[in-house]
Amino acid sequence: MKTLVITGGTDGIGRELARTHLTRGDTVVVIGRDPAKAATLPDAPGRAHFIPADLALLAENRRVLDHLAAQFPVVDALVLCARHYRWRRTETAEGLEENLALFYLSRHLFSHGLAGQLRRAPRP
């Protein structure tokens, strides 16, 4: 079985990927803002994990990455689906433009932050 980390796993494509992989028997770590939405994912004790976080905040990205490093030493797949587009310029509590923080900085932090934990696919 595989271990997947899915940002934005409580809505849309991320949610369906989480549901599909939980149904297949994989371990899925869903990162999202709404615990109520996460609670509607399939019940999979020991395999379904939810980490509440606002990934537009750099401190939240770091907190989640630290948690993942401690709890999931090997990750088979990282799926970056978090999105919450703001039509008007909005700053985070950290003073960053929110769309930039969520769509670029969080993806950068996650892809580099999990690089050591991501299982490498065998070469053909």
TrEMBL record:
Keyword Oxidoreductase listed:
yes
Its keywords, alphabetically, are:
Oxidoreductase
The record's listing under Pfam families reads: adh_short
Establish whether keyword Oxidoreductase is in the entry: yes
Q: What is this protein called?
A: SDR family NAD(P)-dependent oxidoreductase
Organism, scientific name: Streptomyces litchfieldiae
